[in-house]
Amino acid sequence: MAPPPVQPTLILRPSETRGHAEHGGWLRSYHTFAFASYFTAEPREQGWGSLRVINEDRVAPGKGFPTHSHQEFEIFSYIVDGKIKHSDSMGNIEVLKRGDVQMTSAGTGIRHSEYNGGQGDEGLHFLQCWAKPDVRGLKPQYFTRRTYSYR
Description:
This protein has strands at 19-23, 27-31, 51-59, 64-70, 74-81, 83-88, 93-97, 101-105, 110-116, 124-131, 141-145. It has a seven-stranded antiparallel sheet, with no helix packed on it. The protein is mainly beta. The model has no long low-confidence stretch (mean pLDDT 89). 0% of the residues lie in helices and 46% in strands. The protein contains no helices and eleven strands. Strand 6 (83-88) and strand 7 (93-97) form a beta hairpin.
């Protein structure tokens, strides 16, 4: 029998207490949970349930994340402002804009890149969440949902 659901507790965490990293002037990243170079021994900042990552990233014009791999994660991205160019090992290539949503089910493995897809000096601001699926070995999948931009 499954354990009873955990009742969430709201914990106020001011923005300035989140992890922060600057990467060579091209990436400003804020981490809600321990991630990359941001480490915290605080258990409540290691993740919550299956949720492991909530990152807020700002990427400079013409810059981005070169091809890298993921596996056994469900990755959700929301474009706050700007455009992101996505390319992956399943042949998906597209540019998403403000308000669009991207979901990558990495499953047994996927390789992809993400770059600022804007023109000129346009910045990119997006949120990304990673969760561990309850089943391992899923087939990799990629989905996007276009939304109406209010700006």
